[in-house]
Structures are given as C-alpha cells and as structure tokens.
Amino acid sequence: MKNQKGYILISTLIIFSAMLIIGFTILGISVSNYYSKNLNLKSKQCFYLAESGLDFAYLKIRNEVQSAIEYAKNQTDNFIENYLKQELLNNNEYIQINILNSDIYYFLDKEKIEKVLADEFNKHYRAYFLGNRRNEFISNIKTLTNDDVLVQIENNLVEFRDGKIRFTLLSKYSLDDIQKEISSQVHISIPESYMNYKIDTRKIKKNLIYEKGIIAFNRIHPTRFLSEDNILQGNVINIDEYVNLENKVSIRQEDECIYIGKEDIILDENIKSGIIITQGNITINTNKFSGILISKGDIYIQNDFNFIYDNIKNIQLILKYDLFKYFREDNLQEFIFLETISASDVLGYKDVDSLIEYKNWVRRR
C-alpha cells in the first residue's frame, strides 16, 4: 500500500514537472515570437520611414533644380545687362550688315550670341551645385524630418561627370537598436536649350555725320595721312544742322574720349578712339585714332597719323553713349536699323522633372 502511494506521488511530480517544462517552453516560444514579430514590425517601420525620407528629399531636389535655373537665369540677365551689351558694341564679330535700298541694317549674330549665353547660363547652373553655392545646396538637402528621418548627401560629395551633376542621396532612420539606410543615386542634367533675351530693333534716320570720319569746316592740316574717302573740309556742310552743340558732353574712359561742345580739343597720345564734335579746333597728338573727328574750325595733325574709319564702330560708340539724341535729323529718307539685346522676363525652361534621374535604389541594412 505504501509502495503504491509513493508511486502515485512520484508520477504526479513527474507529470507536473513535464507540464511545467512544456508551459515554460510554450511561454518562451511565445515571448520569442512576440519579440521577433515586434522586431520585424520595428524593422519594417524603420524601412518605411527611411523610404519616406527619400520621397521627402525628391521634392526638395526638384525645388533646388528650379532654384538653380532661376539663379542661373538671374546671373545671365546680369551678364546681358552689364557685360554683353557693351561687348556687342565693341566687337564686330557679333554684327552682320545688310544694305538694302540705301538703308543699313545691323543684325546681331544670334547663333554666336546664343552660344555665349548658353555657356554663361550653364556656368552658373553648375556653380549652384558645384561652385560658390555648393555648400548651401548640400545644406538645403540635409534634413531631419518630423519623423526623425535623417536625409543627406552621402559624404557631402557632389560631382560633375559625363555632362551631369551626380551625388548619392542617403536616408537613415533609427529606432532603439534598429537602423535602416536607403540610398539612391541622383543625376541632374543641364537644360539643353535655355535662352533668356530679346532683340529690339531701333530705326534711326541717316545723318551725314555718320558717313565721314573727319570733317573740318575750315581746313585739315595736313591731309597726307588721310584717305580722301573719309574726309570733308572747307565750307561744305553746316555742322549745326546735323549736331546740337549746345548740350555739352564730355566723357573720358581709359583710351576712349567722347566730346560734343564748343571748346578747343587736344587729343593726347593716350586717346585711341572716340567721337569728338566741337565748335573749336582739334589738335591731334596721338598716332592712331578710330572714330569721328568733326570741327567747326580747323583740325591740326602733329605727327604721323593712322586714322581708322569703321562705320560699325562709330555707330556702336554713338549707341554706347546714347548720343543719337544730340544729332539732328536731316531730310534724307534713309535709315539705319540697329538691333540691340536686352534681358527677357520670360523664365524659359519649365520641364524640371525631366532633368532629374533617380537610379540604383539600394536598401543597405
């Protein structure tokens, strides 16, 4: 009887122990499954949030490309207004001439101008990402979103290769001990065509003053250095009928001199170009001059003198210093048509999305 009771007690203990072991095993498996599922859930959450960081960055990149276009446009506008206008006045390679029925047409060479402007625009467009605004661009992309996702350009490395701006975009999110990183290569193209200018045509009545290089109401002393085609002397024309000498103009810039007035003028050896129209005498001490010399008195040439008559440059000088308002219109029904360039208020390139490529999307961890 005692042996039977002992057997029952031992059996009960064995069964209880087995059930306890099974219970702990099931509990361990459940806890393990819980932690595994929780870890997997957190991992997915980290992944989706890291992915959302890329989506957020894509919008910022689009805005940056739009800003780069506007920045390059503004810089190109400044280039047109502050440099190109003067360059077109001083450089005949941008001018094409056509004479039709005694009218003179000065056309701008659009092909050359567009090449210059395209180079200028591209220079500043690249500089937005790679040059003087590079750090600002990188800083604008680097973001910590509301969900604590860190988005940045990997290693702050932006380069220009094979005609495109290139960098790797990196998005990171960490939760507890879990960190997810997703990267995408970004390629930004330069607009293939971007022009931001307009050409205006100015119609001006021809004036005998534009047709000759040196005119003296009295005499030119001597004339042996000059071509007869470029001079007038003696009481041939009344200068007052062509030019208003009452409003004085006096400008000196480096080797260039502009004067309209009534005083005697001496051209020193440093003056090489300009427009001189005066009621007084003109004394020439320089050995080379390009432009217009007109005196209501006498013109004296002191040295060997090389006079260059270039009607295009003369018109350009008049335009450069806005001198047309000092010239009177004669009765000739013949005109000069001048094309001038200015910045346009049209933004130009609009298809920003076509400039951006996202490649090699990689889930790193």
Structure description:
The structure is a single chain. With 365 residues, the protein is of the alpha/beta class. It has five helices and 21 strands. Helix 1 crosses helix 5 (311-320). The chain crosses the membrane at residues 7-35.
Indicate how many domains the architecture comprises. 2
Radius of gyration over alpha carbons? 40 Å
Assembly classification: single chain
Tell the overall outline: rod-shaped
Strand content: 25-35%
Cα distance spanning the termini? 68 Å
Number of helices: 5
**How much helical structure, as a percent, in the residues?**
25-40%
Q: Mean pLDDT, as a whole number?
A: 80
Total beta strand runs = 21
Keywords: Membrane, Transmembrane, Transmembrane helix
Which properties best describe this structure?
transmembrane, membrane, transmembrane helix, rod-shaped, 6-stranded antiparallel beta sheet, 7-stranded mixed beta sheet, alpha/beta, 2 domains
